[in-house]
Amino acid sequence: MMERMRFCAPFLLMAMIASAAENIVYIGTYTNTGKSEGIYAYRFDPDSGKLTEIGLAGKTTNPSFVAIHPSHKYLYAVSEVSGGGGQPSGAVTAFSIDHNTWKLTPLNQVPSHGNGPCYVSVDKTGKAALVANYNSGSVALLPIKADGSLGEATAFDQREGKGTDPKRQSSPHAHSIFASPDNRFALSADLGLDRVYVYKLDPKAGKMTANDPPFASTKPGGGPRHFDFHPNEKFVYVIQEMGSAITAFSYDKARGAMAELQTVSTLPADFKGESTCADIHVHRSGKFVYGSNRGHDSIAVFAVDPKKGTLTLVDHTSTQGKVPRNFGIDPTGKFLIAANQNTNNIVVFRIDQQTGKLTPTGQNLEVGAPVCVRFMAAQ
Predict the structure, then answer these.
(1) Residue 51: left (phi > 0), alpha (psi -120 to 50), or beta?
(2) φ and ψ of 178, to 5 deg
(3) Quick count: other Cβ atoms within 10 Å of Cβ 359?
(4) Which pairing describes strands 104-111 and 117-122: parallel, antiparallel, or unpaired?
């Protein structure tokens, strides 16, 4: 019996390692299309890139963006709705995560203190959820309680002003917000004002106050939407929805200050149609930056100059669907999952670690109006 146990032990260990390596992918959606009911879950094998459907994880209205708590015990989702006309204003819902079924159980829901919340994130300590309200142009900090539920907002910033485009920029439009890698600042892109705001962040005290300098400007009419930090924390990359471009900034982590280095188009030089940008991610190696084009319906791949932080176009890859609003790179950096909102599908691509180029794996799954991809280690 003892010999048998010693013989089996390595296999048990290998099974445990394989289980620990598995990821869960949560997909946020729009439910107002009638093709979705909320947040969907999948198992993801980081060795093969295979997605296996778990199913509907939690019913909720328009969870267009979700965030996972650092403890992996909780998930937070916006309900992207607007006030007026008898409709409720925006909200954020807290869920607990069942690690046996990966289903979501609602804990509570609190107002986002604005209309059309489109982005939520959790600070590195897990004490605060940060939310951006697109329609009303505001951001808020929601304290996270010990049980994972949300408290009422303790910090709030209602922006004022307008940009240069009378149709798209007649008022502020906060489009994203999340903490810097050292958790000392929170950055927020505003499409309506062509600015990336910087706040001093104190999640323990529930405070978020204007930094000095309070923002960095992008090209007028560009419409900054999302952004991401380079792993070395020296650079920030901002994707501009209206301008179909990425701006590279140097980043002074001591001051929370940004300085523009370069702006490059995300579209092929010969492209003549209409297209807008959506999401951006920096590869964990720091060697590549990826941005999504809606209209050209592609992922633009850029190589990063390790010293200068500037970008050079590598490739454009079709997302095999229409309107890739969001995408995610798995924690190993080997795969990218694109969410095509208008064709109701998510597609898995393998990332070439030397060139950054994308190759479809053949995984193409149906999901109703997918608009957010979030990975979580299954532990």
Answers:
(1) beta
(2) -160, 165
(3) 10
(4) unpaired
Q: Which residues contact 141 (CB under 8 A, 6 or more apart)?
A: 128, 129, 130, 153, 154, 155, 156, 203, 206, 207, 208
The span from the CA of 299 to the CA of 239, in Å, is 12
Strands of 207-217's sheet in order across: 174-179, 185-190, 195-202, 207-217
What span, in angstroms and rounded, lies between the C-alpha atoms of 41 and 26? 5
Cα angle, residue 277 at apex, residues 273 and 281 outer, rounded to 5°: 140
Q: How many CB atoms lie within 10 A of CB 142?
A: 25
- What confidence tens digit (pLDDT) does each residue in 216-231 have? 999 999 999 999 999 9
How confident is the model over 307-321, as a mean pLDDT? 98
Contact between residue 298 and residue 319 where contact means Cβ atoms under 8 Å apart:
yes
Q: What is the pLDDT of residues 338-378, one digit of tens each?
A: 999 999 999 999 999 999 999 999 999 999 999 999 999 98
> Is there a contact between 95 and 102 (Cβ–Cβ < 8 Å)?
no
Tell me how crowded residue 379 is: count the other CB atoms within 10 A of its CB: 11
* Distance from C-alpha of 30 to C-alpha of 61, rounded to nearest angstrom: 7
CA angle 53, 54, 60 (to 5 degrees): 110
How confident is the model at residue 81, as a pLDDT? 84
Phi, psi angles (nearest 5°) of residue 12 = -65, -40
Tokens 């708590």 map to which residue?
69
Joined tokens for residue 217 = 């400007």
CA distance 183 to 203: 9
* Per-residue tokens: 255: 């001051």
CA dist 10 → 2, 4, 14 (Å): 14, 11, 6
